[in-house]
Design brief:
The structure holds two protein chains of two kinds. Chain A is an alpha/beta fold. Chain A has a domain at 1-79 and 158-163 and 192-248: P-loop containing nucleotide triphosphate hydrolases (Rossmann fold, 3-Layer(aba) Sandwich). Chain A is 35% helix and 25% strand. In chain A, the strands form two sheets. Chain A has a six-stranded mixed β-sheet. A four-stranded antiparallel β-sheet of chain A has the order 2-1-4-5, covered by helices on one side. In chain A, helix 3 packs across helix 4 (111-124). Chain B has nine helices and no strands. Chain B has one domain (2-255). Chain B starts with a helix and ends with a helix. Chain B has helices at residues 2-33, 40-50, 55-78, 86-124, 127-133, 138-176, 181-191, 194-220, 226-255. By secondary structure, chain B is mainly α. Chain B is 86% helix and 0% strand. Classes of the chains: A alpha/beta, B mainly alpha. Chains A and B meet through helix 2 and helix 3 of A and helix 5 of B.
Chain lengths: 248, 256
């Protein structure tokens, strides 16, 4: 269980998070939606302490990760996988080396075992035979899939997806969504997805939260969220510029 | 008046904060360099990028520096009928001062700027965050091996610069100006002592540390955008040059 309690974060004079409360269920897919620049990625990066809050806490099974020392934090991060917005593959390495990288750095597995596991993951994300390519030689969708393979290589309990379909065409975006659903069902991890792609994200989510004006304005099961009468939710779903969300 | 005081105070705080951050970054990189597992493969790779890849530029600049020194030295010393001191003046100038400083400048321009740009791009494309999220310390993985490699590569590059410079000067002196080969080398032999070589070695090691420290710090903390990376690259080169010259002054005053 991930619990976010009264999370505050400022960058200079801009207060991005103004007291976020959130409870994310284990083994489920929760999507955080919101307008561009509302602080979704900032919130996501607090979940594995890539960013430290000014105030508040993030509890992973009761442990406040904002207060952990480096060694303990790194141990905790072993439970996470992250798919970054641009996949964040190390561009000096091939896809195979990128996916194998955490295994080589963090485990005692032999090279043959690593290779077998990497090829298995690449096959699961539809990149079989692409291991020899460099990230610069891949399309946007392939890069995301390679990033997902790397995020899943350590069999994480929690996977964070930062705008997994950003910059992709609708067909590829649907493909990535299906991939997230399929891998989540296969591995059973807790997924936290940050996105503004509605209504597509409703198909993959068990729960949806909307971040607006620095707080979580609504957090419900996907079905309840879609029929919510909360004006913030209504404005976001309809894409209106007038309403409680400040558009510009 | 009050606003001027506030602005001065803010500026001072920013400077102190920046300097503190830089020192903590260096201490952290040095501490992690000696923690297991050792990144021998990465250190060797960076010795290649810092050392081997800078060889041509160090070779060329050393050769021409030696040749120019010989011309200038000949012109100056001839006025005092002291041409016989040319060999020792060239060797001492190169070993104690010009070799370490100019080789450091060449490495800053050739490799330091590339380091800052590479790390800045990695920051902008979230590759550094990705390492951190995989519980791999980015400073240990990206910075410590570069610092260790520069401590090894810089003295070697400086030695090559010195030797090539001395032979460049020999070529001009003996080949063009008609100075005898024997007096060139015997003058050098009689005036150069181990302390001269040693002081050049100390300088080159510390310059290597300054280059990788400054360039890695600037790249590592570059704002995540194109202008941020370009500014970090420029700042890293300028600050490295300034720190090299300032540190050179202190070392020279101590080791003379």
């Amino acid at each position: 269980m991930i619990r976010v309690v009264d999370l505050h974060k400022k960058f200079g004079r801009q207060e991005v998070l103004k007291g976020v409360h959130l409870e994310l269920a284990t083994g489920k897919v929760t999507t955080i939606v919101g307008t561009s620049g509302c602080g979704k990625t900032v919130l996501l990066k607090h979940l594995n302490a890539l960013l430290r809050p000014d105030r508040g806490s993030v509890l992973i099974d009761g442990t406040d990760i904002t207060k952990l020392a480096k060694e303990e934090l790194y141990e905790m991060r072993g439970r996470f996988g992250v798919l970054f917005q641009g996949a964040a593959l190390l561009d000096s390495m091939t896809v195979l080396d990128n996916v194998a990288f955490p295994l080589r750095e963090k485990t005692e597995m032999s090279e043959s075992e690593i290779r077998k596991k990497v090829e298995e993951r690449l096959e699961q994300v539809g990149l079989e035979g692409m291991g020899y390519k460099y990230p610069a030689e891949l399309s946007g969708g392939m890069r995301k899939r390679a990033g997902l393979a790397r995020a899943l290589i350590m069999d994480p309990e929690i996977v964070l997806f930062d705008e997994p379909t950003n910059g992709l065409d609708p067909v590829l975006a649907t493909g990535i969504h299906q991939l997230i659903t399929r891998t989540q069902k296969t591995f059973g991890f807790t997924a936290v997805v940050v996105s503004h792609s509605i209504p597509q994200v409703f198909e993959i989510s068990d729960y949806v939260a909307i971040l607006a004006n620095g707080i979580i304005e609504e957090f419900k099961s996907t079905k309840e969220f879609q029929v919510s009468q909360n004006p913030v939710v209504q404005q976001f779903i309809r894409g209106e510029t007038e309403g409680p969300i400040q558009a510009l | 008046m009050l606003s001027l005081l506030v602005q001065t105070g803010r500026f001072s705080l920013r400077v102190v904060h920046g300097m503190g951050g830089m020192f903590l970054f260096l201490l952290s990189a040095l501490f992690l360099a000696f923690r297991r597992p050792a990144k021998i493969g990465l250190i060797l790779y960076h010795i290649k990028t810092i050392g081997v890849d800078s060889l041509s530029v160090v070779f060329l600049s050393g050769f021409f520096t030696g040749m120019v020194m010989r011309f200038q030295g000949y012109y100056s010393l001839r006025q005092f009928n002291a041409e016989s001191w040319l060999g020792s003046a060239t060797a001492l100038g190169l070993l104690r001062e010009l070799g370490p400083v100019l080789a450091a400048f060449m490495v800053t321009g050739r490799t330091g700027s590339a380091m800052a740009a590479e790390l800045g791009t990695m920051r902008a494309t979230e590759q550094i965050d990705a390492l951190d999220s995989m519980a791999i310390d980015p400073i240990k993985y990206l910075v410590s091996p570069r610092i260790m490699a520069s401590l090894i590569a810089m003295p070697l590059l400086t030695a090559i610069f010195d030797v090539v410079g001395i032979y460049g000067a020999y070529l001009v002196g003996v080949g063009l100006l008609g100075v005898s080969s024997g007096s060139y080398f015997s003058g050098m032999e009689s005036s150069v002592v181990f302390r001269d070589v040693y002081s050049g070695f100390i300088k080159s090691v510390s310059f290597g540390l300054i280059i990788t420290w400054v360039c890695c710090y600037k790249g590592f903390h570059a704002p995540p955008m194109a202008t941020g990376v370009s500014r970090a690259t420029t700042e890293s080169v300028v600050l490295s040059f300034i720190l090299i010259l300032v540190w050179d002054y202190f070392l020279t005053s101590v080791m003379l």
